[in-house]
Amino acid sequence: MSDTAVSDTASQGEVVDVLIAGAGPAGLALAGELGRAGVRARVLERDPEPPGFCRGFNLNARSLELLDRRGLATRFLAEGPTVPTTMFVGAARLDLAAMRTEHPYVLGIPQTRVEELLAEWAVESGARLLRGRCLTGLRQDGAGVTVEVDGPDGPSTMRCRWLVGCDGGRSTVRKAAGIGFPGTPARRFTLLGDVVLADPSTVPFGPHTGPDGRSVFAIPRPGYVRLLTADPAPPADPREPVSPSAFQHAIDTALGHRAEIAEALWLTRFGDAARLAEQFRAGRVLLAGDAAHIHPPAGAIGVNAALDDAVNLGWKLALVARGQAPDTLLDTYHDERHAAGERLLRNTRAQAVLTQVNGDDDPLAPVRDLLSELAESGDAAGPLAETITAVGTRYPASGDPEHRWAGRMVPDIPLGQDDGDNLTALLTRTPGGVLLLNDTTHRQPLTSAAHPWADRVTTAHTHPCALEHARAVLVRPDGHAAWIGAPSTPVGEAAEELREALMHWFGNPVAIPCKILIDPQK
């Protein structure tokens, strides 16, 4: 998508609500989130055209859950096959069917197509995408951020109330905002090549180990094959281009036989660096995606983590930008996603270490074998898969801490008795939260407590058994349970807990009538 279809730049003196640097998965998903909530967002992308190469080929269950809450999952599922397992610590297969999710599989879809679909949604939601614009500097004050931009017409400035850096691991926004990026540098490098083989049968799908213990992993794609192998002699500057001859030599050496490359479509190298931004927020500047965290590519989780950041930030930034919540709500974005980033780095680094185990004599071989065995066992596969895919993500929540939904993604439960509606459809229709009630005897105090937030939270009723014995559940716009009313809690006390949760997550109340969307008693 080019910027010929949208406004070229901010007019003189115009202040954009949110400016996003980077049109990758994080930036595009965030633009869509903001647009659906009525917040003006513009996306600056340094590249004049979408990339001609593809970094990844999957979306996992966590991403599909989030997309489902926006009515987008069907678009993505139409693009590729679903696979009920994923690779873990080498050649072990991790059974995804054991997860607690509506999408127990991996969707095969190129990242380039993910970005195209997200760009379509962002523009549909009212966002504007400006290509060929490179952010070069920023100055922030108490009212907003002035951004320096280099574009087709030369240097210019833009003014925004909030700036979000989604501009990759070498983020200009992060550096200009003075946010540290501690972690471990890359110690191992991997060569990646999208190539056309003279004889594809020489390297069929899967891992191939040569006589000296080196390996090549092959992923066939339409018209070419993706080959990955360890870089035997990385240069001092890892950004140095990979030559076709060097890649051919590395593949042949690792395999122990010739696999002639007829054409090299894209060659690159990547490392196993692991870094996490010290802060995801510095005043009116925020970070998401690779600008906030980089990690080994184990599990192909990068795009999925970027979407997770965007959805978590989007609804909070929309409330703040609309003046309905204080900007302290954005601190919860840092708290939640920084903690998620720590878990992300921990599990990807662990997988990266174990995939480097060389032979059964390696000291870590028993650890690899143990985890491989757990990955294939019924009892352990579910929790392990939920950890690796982030389906088990749990954010801070109040109310009943023992309920199994506390802080987790609330399942797509039915609403009402006869109309077939469900929670996912409701979250798709509204940019706000949802209060679910099933206590038909004592629900009025909770309904009354929610009245002042009716412009941000829709109240709906469901079957008495649907909430798994909870009196009520406050669902955040991202689908997570923010508060769960325990049936043993006196209704007056539960109403006060609910008011506190609403104030915390949705800002100051407004005294207007509450909308009852679905009532099974009628």
Structure description:
α1 links the parallel β1 and β2. The chain contains 13 helices and 26 strands. It starts with 14 loop residues before the first strand and ends in a 16-residue tail after the last helix. Strands 1, 2, 8, 9, 10, 11, 19 and 20 form an eight-stranded mixed beta sheet that branches. The chain has three domains: 211 residues, FAD/NAD(P)-binding domain (3-Layer(bba) Sandwich), CATH 3.50.50.60; 83 residues, Alpha-Beta Plaits (2-Layer Sandwich); 109 residues, Glutaredoxin (3-Layer(aba) Sandwich). The N terminus and C terminus are likely disordered. With 522 residues, it is α+β, with helices and mostly antiparallel strands.
Short description:
The chain has 522 residues and is an alpha+beta fold. It has 13 helices and 26 strands. Strands 1, 2, 8, 9, 10, 11, 19 and 20 form an eight-stranded mixed sheet that branches.
Quick tags:
single chain; 522 residues; alpha+beta; FAD/NAD(P)-binding domain; Alpha-Beta Plaits; Glutaredoxin; 8-stranded mixed β-sheet; 5-stranded antiparallel β-sheet; 13 helices; 30% helix; globular; disordered C terminus
